[in-house]
Write a structure and sequence with these properties.
Layout: H1 34-41, E1 56-57, E2 96-102, E3 111-116, H2 120-131, E4 136-141, H3 155-158, H4 164-170, E5 174-184, E6 187-203, E7 208-213, H5 224-243, H6 245-257, H7 263-272, H8 278-286, H9 290-342, H10 348-360, H11 369-384, H12 390-404, H13 417-427, H14 432-448, E8 455-459, H15 466-477, E9 481-485, H16 493-496, H17 509-517, E10 523-527, H18 540-548, E11 556-557, E12 564-565, E13 571-576, H19 584-588, E14 591-594, H20 600-619, E15 626-628, H21 630-639, H22 647-670, H23 676-695, H24 697-707, H25 710-719, H26 722-728, H27 733-755, E16 758-760, H28 766-769, E17 787-794, E18 797-810, E19 816-820, H29 825-845, H30 851-854, E20 855-860, H31 874-886, E21 894-896, E22 899-900, E23 906-907, H32 912-921, E24 926-930, H33 934-938, H34 942-945, E25 949-953, H35 956-965
């Protein structure tokens, strides 16, 4: 009979329920079976505890009677969950039910389970069945994967994706007919009644199946074996109850709500409340033989008993460990108190002071007097403060930083110029000016006997090796290296530190650096100094002045420490992409060394000597397995890595070697693993040699004994001659000859596989790095009228750009100029100046030519999506305008750069090296530079200037003569 369930079932707690009928078991009658008496003896206190499982007791499994049902209807989503649902149906009348999947455990008769229904169609069908007074559904367990006991982690999520027959095939055949007691939202409360078996699909959405009702096989209640098995189950349950309070609550609740208790229910009870996996529980559900079902349950509860014993031993061990630690802690505290009373041990404050003084001992004579005075004052203050006060922690942290700094501790520097030059050459190719400056610094330090900190600023495009140069300098000087980036830094406290009064105050980066490296003369690399920010917390660029200025950093004052620190021995190396972005006062303290980038020849050497070698080692590839030809490297540099730096070149080389590694591994995977054949041949050769030695020991002498060693055997494998000679002497000559031939074949195949190498050449380069990224910067092979090539500088290096002028319309007084190409204000002004100067020069050369006065012109700089600005395109614009006005193309392979004044004077420009490299990359032979840039060009390396015809001009008339009068016919 069904019992009334209160709404607390949904909250996973049991409460006392009011029965709707008189229990069949009466006190003092013979129907009070021994099983119930034993279970009744297991009752303990009637306290209520939270119920942790999704399994509940609510019925004795008997069919509900229609006359006992109250005449009340239950609305959907009602707060009360009544187990008695008005119905005129009996469970055995339900031959077609909606199939509900259970992801974790089966539902046993006599128990109830909350489930969540995500499918709205299924939920609607369940609501409709309750309205029709047929509140029954079939609960079937989801099948697990073959060979496993559990389903996947995402089974509960994926099961809602199956519909119809797919869901039917995923469910167990045997399930439970369940009564729908309540539906609240998507939560459905099911009560198990009896076992059923699915036979066929009736409807697919929602899945409705025909079922057969299953009954237990008849059994003899007086069977001694059956009784003994049930008593053993009860005995095991009683043993488990001694260690598990949760099981006690299960038994109490079951006894309170179950009227008729028999062997079948005992088997279901033991399996349902156990922690067995779902496969074992499903076996119990499917078993109709009561005796076998009891045996299965007995196995399950025996396992539970073992688990309880293990749990009890673990809990006991942990409890002993915790109690032991607590006892040890109490004894230690008592011991400390006793020692303190006897004066045998000092307190924590004295121990802290001793620790701080111990730190100062190695450098005590080198610590400045004013610093030592502050430390002594703080140590005295520490003794007077209470350990629980906030001031105590502030003072302790302050002393921790003061005593951790390397006061007067310097590392031994390397003043060996030759050794330093060797180190710099090992790490970097080229960069002669940078290396020369470092060697000069070392030479001065050697002559003086000590080195004074300097500020070197390495400027250049990304990827040219500025940061790695800093590491190499530190290695060459034998200094500690510390790097921190100031890109986007907007808080002055990051450099100067916080005041100690602030919560979470910390010293600045330099104090952290000194504590980290442990010496007072490290090499500090300040990265991205041109990207310093400025926010509400001050201007970090101004704060950097005190840090970098050689006249001030001998007494650098950190806000946290509040004592002067000597940073004069620190070597500062800064890096920047654009020097113009560095504030003037800060730039004034630096010695700028420009790294313009690398030309093709330098990139070839860097790729061969540095990048390719390191990449090979990183990928685990041997040199004899790969060959990247010079043509492939050249094509890679010109078509894929045209940047000034080599970072992208390194990425592309790594990409090539990764694909080669994959190809080698795939090749080895098709045949036997590497060295497997050789090892087998070696073992066979050793075996044959031992046989021959045993047969001809008297004849072979020392040579055969020597030939039996492993090393000699390996030589026999590779040469394949000595084993043949020995085998010809044996009695089994044919067999040994056959083995030797197989050995030779295996060795030859291994040797051929070792000799095979992957060759990367220019034709197959695209297979490794894809299609070329860059194409020729030269748009025109023969420069047309009105088009002139100019040279530009960008933060990524130098590049060439064309300036084109086209005629729009002509007419009396229609002279005008339209400029496009996303030009900045400076270039727009240069275009106006070029238009004016062009008119002046045209009047001088051709007085009667009214081209500019009567022509509307359009001047365009290609690559309109790229912003362009700068004054150095002035002379190029004038030449483009004059070329169109006189209908004369400029000289072939000519590029120019320079700013022009209204009087035609040529002013100097920047980025000479970058522009020279860009000209060489585009195949330009003749370059026009301002005369003021002659010194910059002369300082360039010979390999950069090689093959270039450079003209230096002061006035635009000289450019006019070079561009038009000397043109090739």
């Amino acid at each position: 009979m069904l019992k009334v369930l209160t709404s607390s079932c949904l909250q996973n707690r049991f409460h006392a329920v009011t029965t709707a009928f008189t229990p069949q078991v009466r006190r003092g009658t013979q129907s009070n079976t021994p099983l119930l008496q034993v279970l009744g003896s297991l009752r303990s206190s009637n306290r209520r505890v939270p119920y942790l499982y999704q399994r509940f007791f609510c019925t004795d499994g008997s069919e509900p009677k229609s006359e006992a049902a109250p005449e009340a209807k239950q609305a959907e989503g009602e707060s009360e969950a009544s187990a008695i649902v008005p119905t005129v149906f009996r469970p055995e009348d339900c031959l077609t039910v909606v199939a509900l999947p259970l992801p974790h455990r089966p539902l046993f008769p006599g128990f109830y389970m909350p489930i969540y229904v995500k499918d709205p169609k299924v939920l609607a069908a369940l609501v409709e069945s309750r309205k029709r007074q047929a509140p029954y559904a079939g609960a079937f367990l989801i099948k697990g994967e073959q060979g496993t006991d559990n389903t996947n982690v995402d089974t509960e999520k994926n099961i809602y994706e199956f519909k119809g027959k797919d869901l039917f095939n995923r469910l167990q055949e045997v399930g439970t007919l369940a009564q729908i007691t309540s539906i609240q939202g998507d939560q459905v409360i099911l009560i198990g009644h009896r076992r059923i078996r699915m036979t066929e699909v009736v409807s697919e959405e929602p899945l409705t199946v025909k079922v057969d009702h299953l009954k237990e096989q008849p059994y003899n209640k007086d069977d001694d074996v059956l009784k003994a098995t049930s008593f053993e189950v009860l005995s095991t349950l009683r043993d488990v109850l001694k260690t598990s309070s949760l099981w006690k609550d299960h038994v109490q609740t079951y006894i309170q709500h179950i009227g008729d208790f028999n062997y079948a229910r005992l088997a279901d009870f033991g399996a349902a409340i156990s922690g067995a996996n779902k496969v074992q529980c499903q076996h119990v559900l499917e078993e109709l033989d009561v005796h076998k079902r009891l045996q299965l349950t007995l196995e399950i509860v025996k396992k539970e008993m073992e688990i309880s014993k293990i749990q009890e031993s673990i809990a006991k061990a942990i409890e002993e460990k915790i109690s032991g630690e607590q006892r040890r802690y109490l004894l230690n505290e008592q011991l400390k108190a006793i020692k303190k009373e006897l004066g045998l041990e000092s307190d924590d404050k004295t121990a802290l002071s001793a620790k701080f003084r111990e730190r100062l001992e190695p450098n005590k004579g080198k610590i400045p007097e004013h610093v030592m005075q502050v430390i002594e004052e703080e140590l005295t203050k520490l003794q007077l403060l209470e350990a629980s006060s906030s001031e105590f922690n502030v003072t302790r942290n302050y002393l921790d930083w003061l005593t951790a700094l390397p006061w007067g501790s310097y590392s031994d520097e390397n003043f060996d110029v030759l050794q330093a030059e060797k180190v710099l050459d090992e790490d970097h190719y080229g960069l002669t000016d940078v290396k020369e400056r470092i060697l000069e610094f070392i030479a001065v330090g050697k002559l003086r006997g000590s080195s004074q900190g300097k500020i070197i600023c390495l400027s250049g495009p990304p990827g040219v090796g500025k940061t790695s140069i800093g590491r190499s300098i530190a290695r060459a000087l034998n200094r500690k290296f510390y790097r921190f980036s100031v890109g986007g830094l907007s808080d002055v406290a990051e450099i100067k530190g916080h005041r100690r009064t602030y919560i979470g105050a910390m010293p600045g980066k330099m104090v952290q650096c000194l504590k980290s490296v442990g010496t007072a003369n490290p090499l500090v690399l300040i990265d991205e100094i041109d990207k310093l920010g400025r926010g509400h917390a001050g201007d970090p660029a101004s704060a950097m002045l005190e840090l970098l200025d050689p006249e001030q950093n001998a007494n650098f004052l950190d806000h946290y420490l509040d004592v002067p620190i000597d940073l004069s021995k620190v070597l500062f190396v800064c890096t920047a992409n654009v020097v113009e972005m560095i504030p003037g006062p800060l730039l004034d303290r630096m010695e700028v060394i420009t790294i313009a980038g690398y030309i093709t020849d330098e990139k070839m050497h860097i790729a061969r000597d540095y990048l390719e070698k390191s990449t090979r080692e990183t990928c685990g590839i041997k040199p004899e397995q790969v060959e990247v030809t010079d043509a492939a490297l050249l094509a890679l540099i010109e078509n894929y890595c045209r940047e000034a730096g080599v970072r992208n070149l390194q990425k592309q080389i790594e990409k090539i070697y990764r694909k080669i590694a994959l190809k080698l591994v795939r090749k080895d995977g098709e045949i036997e693993p590497q060295n497997a054949v050789v090892d087998e041949v070696k073992a066979e050769s050793v075996h044959l040699s031992e046989e021959i030695k045993s047969e001809e020991e008297t004849q072979a002498g020392a040579e055969s004994a020597e030939g039996s060693n492993d090393d000699k055997s390996c030589e026999n494998v590779t040469e394949a001659e000595a084993p043949v000679n020995q085998m010809q002497k044996s009695t089994d000559e044919d067999i040994h000859l056959q083995d030797t031939h197989e050995t030779e074949k295996a060795t030859e195949s291994e040797a051929s596989r070792t000799v095979d190498k992957v060759v990367v050449d220019s034709p197959n380069l695209a297979d490794y790095v894809g299609k070329p990224v860059f194409h020729a910067e030269r748009i025109y092979d023969m420069t047309p009228v009105g088009v002139v090539m100019g040279l530009a500088w960008t933060s990524m290096g130098g590049s060439t750009l064309y300036i084109e002028t086209s005629l729009v319309e002509q007419g009396e007084g229609k002279g005008a100029l339209n400029v496009t190409g996303q030009l900045g204000d400076v270039m727009k002004e240069s275009a106006q100046i070029a238009h004016t100067v062009g008119r002046i020069i045209l009047q001088e050369k051709e007085p009667g030519n009214q081209f500019f006065a009567n022509t509307k012109l359009h001047l365009h700089v290609p690559a309109g999506a790229t912003p362009k600005d700068g004054p150095s395109a002035g002379c190029t614009m004038i030449t483009s305008l004059l070329s169109l006005a006189m209908k004369k193309p400029v000289k072939k392979d000519l590029a120019m750069t320079g700013e022009v004044t209204l009087t035609g004077k040529i002013l100097p420009i920047g980025g000479v090296k970058e522009k020279a490299i860009a000209a060489r990359r585009s195949g330009v032979k003749t370059i026009i530079f301002p005369s003021a840039n002659r010194r910059d060009f002369d300082e360039l390396a010979p390999n950069v200037k090689e093959g270039l015809d450079v003209h230096f001009v002061d006035d635009y008339k000289q450019i006019f003569d070079l561009a038009f009068d000397s043109q090739n016919t």
